[in-house]
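Why do we care about 3D structure at all? Because function follows from shape, and shape follows, mostly, from sequence. That is the central idea of this module. The next example makes it concrete: a single protein chain, its amino acid sequence, and then its structure expressed as tokens.
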Amino acid sequence: MVKITDTCVDCLISRVKLECGLARADPKTTQQTTDSCRNLLFALKDLPLSHPQIASRIHRRAYELLKNPDPFRDLKDQGNAESIAVCKEVRPTLVTFRDYVLAAVIGNTFDYGVKGHTVTSNFSAFFQDEFKKGLVIDDTDRILHLASRVVYLSDNCGEIVFDRLLIQFLKSRGSHVTLAVKARPMLNDATLEDAKMLGLDRIVDCLTTNCDGAEIGLCLEETPPVLSDAISRCTLIIAKGMANFESLFERNDLPPIAYLMAVKCQPVADASGVPVGSKIALLRV
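And the structure:
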């Protein structure tokens, strides 16, 4: 399990402060929210909980105190709009499974509030530069071989536009795809509403949520029956982003998992064995 370090504490609290700013909280509310979340974090950090479980509780507390259920709404819309524009530019150049995976991994950089990570202001130029660099870990050939029945665990808005391209590629090859998104707003993660706005309910075989509430990553004990059943019958789980990695990478009771992500922090870099900033398609069987 990735442990909560001092860097993790700083990152979580900096994200709470970002949420206060996005919610246009006054200084008093910002201080009260930050203090409450910090106190909760120190009460939770030594319990046998995963990093995503702790972070989920912190951010739910912040939303409650801010009286704002979706402070990232504008950034989510902005990310989707930017990604749609870039997808129109790059889609004709995407040919292979590796191309579509790499595009979806570059999309994973739409992640606000991770300390030391900045969402680019010129995503089109950034995409072209990152596409040339490729994947630091590239298990795409082995991943595609397993992709007959896929459970796809999504992550952020913006990113999900590129996920749609990858899912369409998988469907064109005959894959059965179950897509799991968030039931309720959490950070800038894609929700059921976002997925439907992008028409993903008409593309995938099954669109579901990862739980009934607002949860970062995936807590297997809280998954709805439809997702639990899909996981039990799938040949491959595609897990997008660091939170899904942190939730699942120590489990040994699951189907093969393809972790598709941009590595944005040192604890996850250490756990995955690559430098911060790496883009990976890592298969664990």
